[in-house]
C-alpha cells in the first residue's frame, strides 16, 4: 500500500481548477444563464443545464459547516497525520467543498468557525486547504 | 409505485447464510447457501426461479455479478441484473422485482446479496476498497473515511438538535441487546453504555462500537405474485408500499447534512400502502453507523427532528417498546457484508410478520417498515410489509 499522500488527479472537467491551484488560486464555476455558483467543476450547470459557464477566483474565505477529527486513518499514507480534521467548508460564494483543517490549532475547530484558504504542496500539484482565520 | 400495486406481490421465502467469520466459504458460496435456504423456506423448486437480482461485491473480482451468480447457481433466467445503489440495493431490488412481476417479465424472482468481507480480504484492504465511495478527485485527497463522513453528519445533528454522545451509544447498546436474541447474529456478547463510550475512537464523535461490523454473510429472499404466494409453504409477507428517493452520492454534494431522502422515500411508501407512521409495529432501519437509524427514525415520521436520541435512550426502540427497531441486531451487531446488510432488515421484517420468534418477537406485528440507504445517506428506499394483502 502506498505511503504517499494522494496527489490531485486532473481530468477534462477539472484541468483549469488544478492548474490555478498551482498558482495559489481557488477557482469556482459560475453559470452565465442562471447565475448559480457550484463546486465540483462539470460540463454543464447542475441547476439549469446551461453550457455557458465561466471560471472565477474565490475569495478564499468560508465557515465550517461540519467536521470530524479522524483518529483511524483511511490509508497508510494518512496514518502519519492522525489525528487530523476533515471538514465541509461553506465558501462565502455559496458552494460547499471538502477540506482538511490545517495549522497548529486545527483540532480546536468548531462548527461555524471562520476559515481561510491555504495551499499544500502534493508532488508537483497544490491542494486547497483551510486553516482557522486569525483575528 | 401506484396504489394499485399495493399488496400484489409477496416475499415468500427468506434465507441467511452462516454469518461471522466463515473462511471455508467464498462470497458466491455464501450467496448460494442463503438462496438455497430461501428456496427451502418458500417450498419452491430450483426450476420455479425465472428471475434473479443481485448487487455487487468488493471482495470478489467479477464484472456482471448478476450473470456470474446465475452461472454459479446453474440458473438460466428470463430476467436478470446486478443493481448497484450501495446499501440501498436490496430494497431497490425488491422494487424492481415487483415491477418485473407485475409487468409479466418474470414470475418468481430470487434477490440475493453477500460477500466474504471478514475473511475474503484483510480489514485494511476492505477499508481502502470502501474509500472509493469518497469522490476520487475532490474528497479522497483529504483522507476522509466513510466513518468520517458519517461522523460529520453526527456532528451536525448534535450541533443543530443537541443530540448527545450518550444518545448514539444507546443505539449501539439497544441493537446489541436485540442481536443476543438472534441465533445467527455475528455478535454474541452484551455491551454497556460505558463500553461504547470508551471504545477505540474512529472519527469523532464515532467510536468502534458506533460502526457496523465486517462480516462474512449472504442473504436472500424470493418474491412472487400475491396470488401464487397463497399456496406456498411459508406465510407470505405482502409488499404494501415502497418508494425511493435519490439526492446525491458524495457528501460534499449533499443538499443538507440534517435532511436526507428518507423523508421522501418514506412518504411514497406510506402513500402507496395507505398507512401512517403510527400504524407501523416494527421497523428495521439501515444502521451502518449509530447516527443513521436516528436520522431515519426522524425522517420517516416516527418522532420529531431532534427527538431520535431520546427515542432510543428511553427504550421506545427496544423490543417491548413503542416501536422496536432492528430486532435482529442490525448491521451494528447482526451482520454487515456489502448489500447483505440491508437485506437482513428485509429478512427480519418478513420473520416478524410471520411470528413465532420467541423472546425476539414483537407481539402482534402486522405491519413492518424497512429502510435501506446507500452512499452517504444518498440513495434511499423505504418499504412496508404486511401479513395481509391490504
Work out the number of β strands of chain A. 8
Shape of chain B: globular
Mean pLDDT of chain B: 96
- Find the count of extended strands of chain B (DSSP E, 2+ residues): 11
Tell me the structural class of chain B: alpha/beta
Strand content of chain A: 35-45%
Mean pLDDT of chain A: 95
Regions of chain A with pLDDT < 50 over 5+ consecutive residues?
Answer: none
Main sheet strand line-up of chain A: 4-5-6-8-7
- CATH top level of the largest domain in chain B? Alpha Beta
Q: Largest beta sheet of chain A, briefly?
A: 5 strands, mixed, barrel
Query: Largest interface: which pair?
Result: A-B, 37 and 37 residues
Shape of chain A: globular
Features:
heterodimer; A: 135 residues; mainly beta; OB fold (Dihydrolipoamide Acetyltransferase, E2P); five-stranded mixed beta barrel; three-stranded antiparallel sheet; 2 helices; 8 strands; 8% helix; globular; B: 390 residues; alpha/beta; Peroxisomal Thiolase, Chain A, domain 1; two-stranded antiparallel ribbon; 13 helices; 11 strands
Fold blueprint:
The complex is a heterodimer of chains A (135) and B (390).
Chain A lengths: L14 H7 L5 E5 L5 E2 L14 E5 L3 E10 L5 H4 L4 E8 L4 E7 L11 E9 L2 E8 L3
Parallel strand pairs in A: 6-8
Antiparallel strand pairs in A: 1-2, 1-3, 4-5, 4-7, 5-6, 7-8
Chain B lengths: L8 E8 L10 H16 L8 E4 L10 H9 L5 E4 L6 H15 L4 E9 L6 H9 L14 H16 L3 H15 L13 H5 L3 E3 L2 E2 L8 E10 H4 L7 E10 L15 H12 L8 E4 L5 H9 L8 H6 L16 H5 L5 H15 L12 E8 L4 E8 L4
Parallel strand pairs in B: 2-3, 2-4, 9-10
Antiparallel strand pairs in B: 1-7, 1-8, 4-7, 5-6, 8-11, 10-11
Write up this protein.
The complex is a heterodimer of chains A (135) and B (390). Chain A has 135 residues and is mostly beta strands. Chain A has one domain (15-132): Beta Barrel (OB fold (Dihydrolipoamide Acetyltransferase, E2P)). Chain A has 2 helices and 8 strands; from the N terminus they run αββββαββββ. In chain A, the strands form 2 sheets. Chain A has a 5-stranded mixed barrel. The radius of gyration of chain A is 16 Å and the shape is globular. Chain A starts with 14 loop residues before the first helix and ends with a strand. The model of chain A has no long low-confidence stretch (mean pLDDT 95). Chain B has helices spanning 27-42, 65-73, 89-103, 123-131, 146-161, 165-179, 193-197, 226-229, 262-273, 291-299, 308-313, 330-334, 340-354; strands at residues 9-16, 51-54, 79-82, 108-116, 201-203, 206-207, 216-225, 237-246, 282-285, 367-374, 379-386. In chain B, strand 10 (367-374) and strand 11 form a beta hairpin. Chain B folds into 2 domains: 3-121 and 214-229, 3-Layer(aba) Sandwich (Peroxisomal Thiolase, Chain A, domain 1), CATH 3.40.47; 143-210 and 240-386, Thiolase/Chalcone synthase (Peroxisomal Thiolase, Chain A, domain 1, 3-Layer(aba) Sandwich), CATH 3.40.47. The chains are: A mainly beta (135), B alpha/beta (390). At the A-B interface, strand 4, helix 2, strand 5 and strand 6 of A face helix 4, helix 5 and strand 5 of B.
